[in-house]
């Protein structure tokens, strides 16, 4: 078995007296699509916040390509090759859709402190933005203010911005929440396509998406990973059924 | 849309022709207006584009002003720093002090950021009164503009052109800046710094840099100011300078590119005209600010741009008519308000109080009439005009709304 690209080792996170993540252990393998499922409030988003630098773990280690990233700043984590989307849409509302994506793409080209070139003439950047616009089906909306997009369009933009930095590891937190069936199907296809050659860690509530998309699934309940395995393993796992899937079916 | 460049060209042409068109005192006011416009643009970069509200921009304006005066004295307007290049010194000192102040203040956001900028500016102001060697104490530091490059710089016209060239150059640079990658990221900083961090940007470094660039242009404005009056006094570090640039920029519209410049120029012109006419012109300035914020929160230019963007082809003439009618009604209300304010100001002034003896209230002369303060008439005129104007505006608004409803 190859070394994990992202590895959580005995990770704890508490907010004051509340222990939200308790001894989470998770290995995400290079190239796999790995889903995290679990009931609401289990700590899935918190886990993503820990991996992406929003929070520092209270205890334990988070390794990306074998190097510690637990406690690093979000920008540093991003530069090491991990990008994420947010469950609560987190975009640049007062500028155009095009501008939103361009902000995401420019960083990849190391255009941070550049004030001697015209942004409109960055051919490579603008081409990549157009390409992304097509992929997330927002070409027609390129000049619209992001705040004026419909909810599901904003969700697509959220995904587009996450992809823009061309990351090795992508974390998507409930990307399809609030999308229609058709949009969900399309987005699932898109995620499959763009994560080719990358590693995906995804939180999603739509079980049909999870079971068709993921190579492996981890189940998080009360801040603990109670099982990790292939979709078949998880479907057959008694503890999971009891803790989560059974609950859903009931 | 070929309209904007034409308008711009016409404005620049007018500005170039101005010395031959207006009186000396008006030209002097124009110099002040240009400086206020540039200062407001510097502030607008930080506040409007990067979303960081500074309450201490007088510090960088003042630093630039003092630096230029000292440089004028040190170089005598010759050698490495001839007179026309002195604003560079203001810009450089503004940039450096902006880097330092920006490093600390951009560690926080929102109210805390504003408080740090305020505190830093007050700190400098307090220091300035003690550091006599640098800030010249009560008297300030004075100097003389020396001739350079075959230009005398003694006349007001020369100073006007110096200020004009620098102001236009800086505004042009700010415009180009807004089109660069860093300029676009500045908007991202305003819109959602949190997301920028997760895209890999170093928001603290970006914030510091934007702060410093803003302070640099503020420093250039300050240098132009001290070159104009050939002196600098620590009054330029006072908080009312910081406040004025905030108010001016918001009145013009802090988020649209030329909004702050227009706000700065208009309000400086307003001050120039009204400060001779009335003692309470600061009150009027305050009222204007409150009204603009209440009814035109995007600012004068911001609102104009918004209207133009959403105009419907045929409705232009009609909405223009309605707007003119509204303005007319508002003018009536304003006349009433001005009457009341001026009357009250005279009525409450200590001079008038001194003239009042038991039961004897002398008439108050206002707008070439003498009004008996205890009669109904002056109050009726003021309140009546004001009420009439407001009632008319309300009627016009209702009519317009009815018509729009009928169309829909
Ligand atoms: N910043 C925080 N401070 C305190 N409690 C938090 C914080 N963030 C999340 N929590 C708590 O942690 C628990 C897990 O939240 P979350 O990770 O969002 O769950 P999930 O994404 O699995 O629905 C919730 O009970 C939530 O109230
Ligand atoms: Mg969540």
TrEMBL record, chain A:
Q: Where is the ABC transporter domain?
A: 6-247
Keywords tagged on the record? ATP-binding, Nucleotide-binding, Transport
Keyword match Transmembrane: no
Q: Which PROSITE patterns does this chain map to?
A: ABC_TRANSPORTER_2
Q: Which Gene3D superfamilies match?
A: P-loop containing nucleotide triphosphate hydrolases (3.40.50.300)
Entry keyword annotation includes Zinc: no
Molecular function via GO: ATP binding
Supply the Pfam families for this chain. Answer: ABC_tran, BCA_ABC_TP_C
Q: What is this protein called?
A: ABC transporter ATP-binding protein
Q: Whose protein is this, by species?
A: Pseudodonghicola flavimaris
Automatic annotation (TrEMBL), chain B:
Q: Identify its membrane topology class.
A: Multi-pass membrane protein
Superkingdom is Bacteria
Q: Where in the cell is it found?
A: Cell membrane
Supply the InterPro entries for this chain.
Answer: ABC_transp_permease (IPR001851), LivM-like (IPR043428)
Which UniProt keywords are listed?
Answer: Cell membrane, Membrane, Transmembrane, Transmembrane helix
CDD domains of this UniProt entry? TM_PBP1_LivM_like
Q: Which residues cross the membrane?
A: 29-47, 59-79, 85-104, 111-128, 148-177, 198-225, 257-275, 281-301, 322-341, 376-396
Q: What is its main location?
A: membrane
Name used for this protein in its record: Branched-chain amino acid ABC transporter permease
- Organism of origin is Pseudodonghicola flavimaris
